[in-house]
Amino acid sequence: MFPPKDITKRDYISLNIQESATSVRGTSRSLWRQWNQLSRFQRNILYFIVGTIILIIFYLLPGDSKSGILDESDYNNIEVVQDTLKYEKAIEDIVVDNVNQDHKDGGEVIEEPEFQPEINQADDDQIGEPPQPKPNTLKFNGPQNSRQKAVVAAFKHSWNGYKEFAWGHDTVKPISRKYHEWFGLGLTIVDSLDTMYIMGLNSEFLEAKAWVDKSLVFTLNKDVNLFEVTIRVLGGLLSAYHLSGDKIFLNKATQLGDRLMPAFSTSSGVPYSDVNLGTNAAHGPKWGPDSSTSEVTSIQLEFRDLSRSTGEPKYEEAVAKVSEHVHQLEKYDGLVPIFINANTGQFREFATITLGARGDSYYEYLLKQWLQTGKTINYLRDDYLLGISGTQKHLVKRTASNKYLFIAELVGATKEVKPKMDHLTCYLGGTLALGVHHGLSSEHMDLANELVKTCYQTYAIHPTFLAPEITYFNIQNVKDEKPMDMYVKIHDAHNLLRPEFIESLFYMWYFTGNKTFQDWGWQIFQAFENYTKVEKGYTSIGNVRNVLHTRQQDMTESFWFAETLKYLYLLFDDTRQLIDLDKWIFNSEGHPLPIYES
Ligand SMILES: *[C@@H]1O[C@H](CO)[C@@H](O)[C@H](O)[C@H]1NC(C)=O
Ligand SMILES: *[C@@H]1O[C@H](CO)[C@@H](O)[C@H](O)[C@H]1NC(C)=O
Asked: Which of 199, 205, 267, 292 is least surrounded by Cβ atoms within 10 Å, i.e. has the fewest?
């Protein structure tokens, strides 16, 4: 936005003026005294001589210089002038924003936004930094009711296990009391920062912040997944920065963003799935040439926010290019295949179409990017609407017996309907409700309500009251029989403490105030308590179908801290005011980021 070359030019000009100012100041007093000693006649003669000299110089000079800075040949000067204007415009915009926000801010929960005074911004510009708004920080008062207290207790129980056996490592194995390393980025700590901040766990937050400050480094010679690290680590750091206002988090986010950028150096601009933070080498996944569609389209909220927070446009430019590219590709009534080649930029033909794994957050981030940018980028909203109408046309199915609605998948060249739904797909109810709140078709709310009811059933039909990873549905009527609506295959019966349904319950509660959604969440929370809690934390289980053989798997994924417990805590907020969904947008890992005006 403010290219460094022009800033140097400005510096150079002001330096010259300063130098000549000092040299004049030294002799000015004695000259003045001599001038006063002259008679009026002598002074008039001097006036005449000086005036004549100026006229002669003016006529003798070549024509070019006479017309001054408005002449085209003096192009540099014009550039300088224009840049100054652009810069002042930027300040105006910020000041206007500030005023608007002041008016809108009614509640006590949300602090009024503070922006750096104009003078500081001018200084920033001279040392090469564009003006940056200060984050819109929030304050929280801790749990307000018994359900929230229970959730905070669960968080602390889990956190203590992590602290004791896995501190500084990615995830804890709470049964064997060991740790698991995935990227070597202290995933659980970074993913938990904003949850602790929102829950009012201040000493835990400060301890985690100190670890981030001293020990979080991005120099490991290790491949990481661009998408996972973006939503968990970049998103976690940026959210912690915006909520707390602490620049430590922004600095770390910037370091990480810079090391993720090599992933975008492909011929199509569609990023590789993997990047080595230490060596800057990026490449496709080990198992094939393609990136996942949802992965390359679910990094935009975070990279854009990094650009907006630092004033450095390159991050946003890289991810906007990906979105624009995918926008241009041909789709199946707005639906996308789940694989895309980073080199050719094309979808893999006949890849599965699903709103579950590898497809899900493509649709989520279309809506959320549109909201993040103040509803100013229309193609994002249009593609989202196309995706939902394609879903209604091709993927929405009902069970034969009780007519439960679910979102099926399409497989292969024939696009055969596969009556199966990942638990991941249960995010969609919440996203639909968010869109309706922002003015999109109220029909989407009917779909949201029905999907949420089905997702609830995927929990309620099991004796553990926990949902499996994948559920299959009976859509064929069998003569004289009422087949079961849903069933689970043995390899899909695990529960990883996933958040998507709780996330949807939070949105449904937030937008409707219907306490049924809170009560459903409370039932599920109790099920987590009954079947996933162990002495040193909470664990994934291998089987939701038998309370006597849950096959505890000895793993606490970081999204348990980042999302499941955070969304439970927000779901049990009776005031529905902890986080204003007109001002904040949650990324795919449950990290709130600010909504911008454009
Ligand atoms: C609240 O939501 C439940 C579940 O969708 C629904 O059955 C019930 O009718 C709703 N209550 C009201 C008052 O809308
Ligand atoms: C969890 O355990 C409590 C107490 O034993 C019991 O009342 C409740 O029904 C159980 N809930 C689930 C979902 O299993």
From this structure: 267
